[in-house]
Amino acid sequence: MAAPLLEVRNLRAGYGPTEVLHGLDFAIPEGSITALLGANGAGKTTTLRAICGMVRTSGEVSFAGQRISGKSTEDIVRLGVAHVPDGRGTFTDLTTEENLRLGAYARREHGALAEDYGRMYRLFPILAERRHQQAGTLSGGQQQMLAVARALMLRPRLLLLDEPSFGLAPMVVKEIFEVMREINRSQKMTILLVEQNAAMALKLADQAHLLETGRIVRSGAGAELMNDDAVRRAYLGY
Ligand code: ATP
């Protein structure tokens, strides 16, 4: 197995006096897709925020062999961790292409932007058609694609995705999952995916962790968890 790109040790995090994550331990091998599953409120979003330095934490998070816990979000992004938050966070008054340009802002090497736009438009052809359109006028699915593309403009080594399928039609969800598989395969992009759609996430993921009230209660290969009775009953409905 490849060396871990991200290592999380005894990660605790919370809001104000309330602890939400009670000591998570997991590692993400470079080039893999990892899914984080769990019910509403289990702490999935908080885990992504903790990795990005957006909430108070204790414990240790290392990225590419370097400790990142305690660093600012800006520094963590510059090291190559891109985060697509839930709710997408596109700039609705800016055009598609202006949103993409902002995505490239924090990256280290300033290679040709045009080449990156081209790459994004090949991944998401609909964004090419909408390149001069205000992001706020795009459909929910197109805005989600734009949010993913904007994160990829950073040329990250690790992509954190928070519920990319939320509220989208099945066809669009399928397209977004296909893009995740494609960038993982062709660019060896390491992905940490938070998903409510457990069936699709487990099918895509190399490994998955199940969170319950701030603790990891099950871990395994995607296919393995798909056959786990508790996971099936609680998350797959059969
Ligand atoms: P969901 O699918 O509902 O987003 P989740 O697994 O991502 O669930 P989190 O959003 O990480 O869960 O929330 C975990 C806990 O932290 C919940 O009890 C939630 O109420 C609490 N929480 C989340 N954000 C905040 C905040 N900004 N301030 C205070 N408490 C929060």
Automatic annotation (TrEMBL):
<keyword id="KW-0547">Nucleotide-binding</keyword>
<keyword id="KW-0067">ATP-binding</keyword>
<dbReference type="GO" id="GO:0015807">
    <property type="term" value="P:L-amino acid transport"/>
</dbReference>
<keyword id="KW-0029">Amino-acid transport</keyword>
<keyword id="KW-1003">Cell membrane</keyword>
<dbReference type="InterPro" id="IPR027417">
    <property type="entry name" value="P-loop_NTPase"/>
</dbReference>
<feature type="domain" description="ABC transporter">
    <location>
        <begin position="6"/>
        <end position="238"/>
    </location>
</feature>
<dbReference type="InterPro" id="IPR052156">
    <property type="entry name" value="BCAA_Transport_ATP-bd_LivF"/>
</dbReference>
<dbReference type="GO" id="GO:0005524">
    <property type="term" value="F:ATP binding"/>
</dbReference>
<dbReference type="Pfam" id="PF00005">
    <property type="entry name" value="ABC_tran"/>
</dbReference>
<comment type="similarity">
    <text>Belongs to the ABC transporter superfamily.</text>
</comment>
<dbReference type="InterPro" id="IPR017871">
    <property type="entry name" value="ABC_transporter-like_CS"/>
</dbReference>
<dbReference type="InterPro" id="IPR003439">
    <property type="entry name" value="ABC_transporter-like_ATP-bd"/>
</dbReference>
<dbReference type="InterPro" id="IPR003593">
    <property type="entry name" value="AAA+_ATPase"/>
</dbReference>
<keyword id="KW-0813">Transport</keyword>
<protein>
    <submittedName>
        <fullName>ABC transporter ATP-binding protein</fullName>
    </submittedName>
</protein>
<dbReference type="GO" id="GO:0015658">
    <property type="term" value="F:branched-chain amino acid transmembrane transporter activity"/>
</dbReference>
<dbReference type="GO" id="GO:0016887">
    <property type="term" value="F:ATP hydrolysis activity"/>
</dbReference>
<keyword id="KW-0472">Membrane</keyword>
